[in-house]
Amino acid sequence: MHILFLDDSSRERAKFVGIGGVIFHDSCISSLGQLFDATKERHGIPLDEEIKWSPKRDSWIYNNLAKDKRGAAYSEFLNLVRVCGGTVLVAVMRKDITSFDTRGAKWQCMEFVSERFQFFLQHQEDRYGIIIADFPGSGSEEKNLLTNYHELRQKGTRFVKLSKIVMNLLTTESQWHPGLQIADLIVGVTTAMCTAHSAYASPFWNIVKEKLHRTASGSVIGCGLKIFPPESAADVHEMLFPEEFEESYVEYTGKMRWLYSQVMSEDELDINFPRFQ
């Protein structure tokens, strides 16, 4: 069974909203916990201290782990994705140029990530998975999330049936699981990298980028990293993957239109992968 650990992030006063995290196979969860605790001990972090991309001002990390030391520790935590064979999925929306409010943007990103988790599972030897998300903050928010996701899983998205996600998502407090704490770092880094203020996130980007899910042809955008709206994707693609930007964005959107032509109408293709004159 594959488990997708999921968290959310907001940047630049919620202009950018991200949902994402890391997939681990259940066979590595025990060793992940042991390695996570060993990393804490190596950096002098109390075992009951939660690892957060944006730690609270009264937290041990904020007050005791200086910038360089925090960077070294966070790099090691993120590197556990590689050590434990994890795969990264993230969806980021630039909300200010869409009609979405924050709640709607987060839900749309949740759909994007669920689609990509389904695509990931379809190509694995073990083709089934579940999602575990950070507790959303209150009992009523949790109830709404679980109800809405149950309906999504039953009906699927507009384009994808979520047949390989075998049950409704689960929620738990992130402080109790390393997978969710690593997911918090991943979505925090990735969302920040999509903004104009990425200086703090950039030292960690190569670690995250290495483990983003890719298509068989090696493409990341639209697969391990979904950017919305489409007009934002070109700039992000060039900024975050300059080594891969030999293919123009016009060629990229043409390829995506062809791939999705069997499941989208012409109007939907124009919205998601616009034509360029």
Order of helices and strands: EEHHHEHEHEHHEHHH
Low-confidence sequence ranges: none
Number of domain modules? 1
Helix content: 40-55%
CATH architecture: 2-Layer Sandwich
Sheet of most strands = 6 strands, mixed
CATH topology: Nucleotidyltransferase, domain 5
Distance between the termini: 45 Å
Question: Outline, from the CA principal axes?
Answer: globular
Any idea what the radius of gyration is?
18 Å
Number of helices: 10
Q: What topology, given as strand order, has the largest sheet?
A: 5-4-1-2-3-6
Helix and strand topology:
Layout: E1 2-11, E2 16-25, H1 29-42, H2 60-64, H3 67-83, E3 87-94, H4 102-122, E4 129-134, H5 139-155, E5 170-172, H6 178-193, H7 202-210, E6 225-228, H8 230-240, H9 249-260, H10 266-272
Parallel strand pairs: 1-4, 3-6, 4-5
Antiparallel strand pairs: 1-2, 2-3
Would you give an account of this structure?
With 277 residues, the chain is an alpha/beta fold. It has one domain: Ribonuclease H-like superfamily/Ribonuclease H (Nucleotidyltransferase, domain 5), CATH 3.30.420.10. 47% of the residues lie in helices and 15% in strands. It has helices at 29-42, 60-64, 67-83, 102-122, 139-155, 178-193, 202-210, 230-240, 249-260, 266-272; strands at residues 2-11, 16-25, 87-94, 129-134, 170-172, 225-228. Strands 5-4-1-2-3-6 form a six-stranded mixed β-sheet. Helix 5 (139-155) links the parallel strand 4 and strand 5. The longest helix has 21 residues, at 102-122. It is globular and about 55 Å long. The relative contact order is 0.17.
